[in-house]
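Suppose a colleague, Dr. K., hands you the sequence of a protein chain of 196 amino acids and asks what its three-dimensional shape might be. Before reaching for any lab equipment, you can write down a predicted structure in token form. Begin with the sequence itself:
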Amino acid sequence: MNKRRLLAIALGLIVSACGQPDAPIFKGIDLTGAEYARGFNLKDIDGHSRTLDEFKGKVVVVFFGYTQCPDVCPTTMAELAQVKKSLGAEGDKVQGIFITVDPERDTPELLKAYLASFDKSFVALRGSDDETRMVAKEFKAFYAKVPGKEAGSYSMDHTAASYIFDPQGHIRLYEQFGKTGPQALADDIKALLAGH
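The predicted structure, expressed as tokens, is then:
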């Protein structure tokens, strides 16, 4: 084999190695480039309109739920609070957003008390029935009222997952409830904070 051919092969290997950046292997479902879950515009518990743009610079974790949820919602919020705390100073760059799918019962006062029990920095958003439906549609999130056994009682079926945005405000990950756990969520958030 002549020297010119060996040099060409060596250069080819170097170029191909340089062209493979260390892409993170996320634990959650990678939604990078998705053309949905592009944002929200809902009121917080103080009546102020909030949008995704105001949280740029932070990893934003959006979850659709309701305060009377018996298991999925409190577990998800508790895990997010645990992850945020485990990140130390970097945890200040993580923003939890809770969008209620039950605005009928989830009053601002109830939402404030609910989220404060997990992390005081978490933001609760609520809209009218139409606004909630529109935001859920944008995120491809499901929810439905399920009548209870007693007259007038009900529960809510809903998507059991978190939508995670990078610090530039782009949707990146879909973390399904019960599939990954707090450590996997922490690893994915760290990767996004590192610029992956």
